[in-house]
Amino acid sequence: MNLYLVPxxxxxxxxxxxxxxxxxxxxxxxxxxxxxxGYEKHFDIIWDKSTDPSIVSYKVYRKYNGQFVxxxxxxxxxxxxxxxxxxxxxxxxxxxxxxxxxxxxSDLSDSIIVVTHTMTDEEFLDMVQRATFRYFWDYAHPTxxxxxxxxxxxxxxTIGGSGFGIMTIPIGIERxxxxxxxxxxxxxxxxxxxxxxxxxxxxxxxxxLHGETGQVIPFSQYDNGGDLVETSFMIQGLLxxxxxxxxxxxxEIAIRxxxxxxxxxxxxxxxxxxxxxxxxxxxxxxNFGWQMNMxxxxxxxxxxxxxxxxxxxxxxxxxxxxxxxxxxxxxYLNGKYFYGIPLYVxxxxxxxxFFAHYSYLGFDPRNKKDAYTNYFNxxxxxxxxxxxxxxxxxxxxxxxxxxxxxxxxSDDPFGYRVHEPFNDNGTITPSAALSSFPYTxxxxxxVLKNLYRTYGSSIWGEYGFKDALNPKENWFASSYLAIDQGxxxxxxxxxxxxxxxxxxxxxxxxxxxxxxxxxxxDSTVDIKEQNEIAIDFSxxxxxxxxxxxxxxxxxxxxxPDEVEVVIYDVLGKKxxxxxxxxxxxxxxxIEWRGLDNANNNVPSxxxxxxxxxxxxxxxxxxxxxx
Length: 626
Description:
By secondary structure, this protein is of the alpha+beta class. It is globular and about 90 Å long.
């Protein structure tokens, strides 16, 4: 029953049995510092956790007809209550009590008023960061403080996801979600556990470990030892928070000292496997040695492993390993255009979007380039290609649009899968677009708003956006994964304040690494996103569609401009430069007769056309059917 829209007759019946509250000598103190946050369609009530060890739960009451009714019980582990009435313009008043182990309930707290209202962009970002932070703060493992691998994973914590999680703590402090002292205490718990209890193998942690004992939980049959990539994500996080906790207090000095020790003890050079090895290796096991035999080589999510190995002051690798190892794949350099967008480094069409996130949560790719590319620009283009593929939607999946895009690894209706262009099944993962905020802020914001406003509580929960959705299957994940939630809050903050980028890059070891790799200054070109892929362009479509042998592409200009019309196949390969001319304001049509640039007939299939002006461009889809 929806208590926000419940009939008056039922409310009157409930109100007949309202309790009165009179604090007795043994009553606990009511919750303190109760505050409320109203969003567009839901709200949060938050209070300070009680320090009374006898407290077993809280109760949240809503005001109706002057009385506080409908108590909702919240377990003691949580100090918040969220509800999603799904309506804008509602006003509610709440009070909170706590209950001790004897069943005695406290007086009600001071009342708090929440109002659902139309939100600004900044309020949307606050909303997402506040909720996502809860996954790493409230749902962290109680013993170790590390991040659970996913919702309901109990004692299984993830090292890489915990590296992301520890990076959210400075965000929580700066945004006022927690105090600095609370952050200090949590980080001390984490680093002491990592140093004294968590198993390490030549300084390297495993992918998964037990949150209480620190012992390895095997990730696969032969993967029960060190995982250098997961460790790299952790070290990225640790070096970030080492720079944040910079006060000369005993606790903050201890944090810095322990992190420095952990950083110095990672034997990057040993994970080359051979004394003169040109590669880093992903795994080593005390039982199976190098049985996994997995070389770390780009282009993928592992860039940070080589950057840290080259930055290490104690177990440094030679400079040649960057070109001979990380960038040695024949698929590293690309240089092709996909949907009219150049990709300098990476697989064709870029691959899953987590490639553009994991290594760049702390490492700031802006304003620099190595021998191969400017990684900020390349990641931006990768994101735009991923979006363009979803808009073109060559496989005809339901729901894909300019405001619902983003393919990356996540849960889906059939299990877990790495989703990417031409290897997708209709699953959209919020982390893909939302973790791309530094690259495509306006386009990512459209996805954020569409997810929230269109799908509501089906995709939104207490820890923010759930892992994925598949409109084709009418499926919504109930899961949250640390490796998907972490990049969302971190990259939104990097978009807003560059906090994590600035902290990580301020480590002195990183500055020397940049020189060793050969990074040089390069401007990050600020191209308006609309100039690359616009959505507010007047396109009439192409007629007929499907067609054989020819079709007319019809569009309108709001002002005179130079216009190019280009045809691509579904793989993003250019087929035909159809037209390039200056056109007047108004409606125009361009005919395509199914010929390529060599004037050969093209085969049947789906084709993408791009209409490009000096200010913006638009994509459409057509089918040649012979």
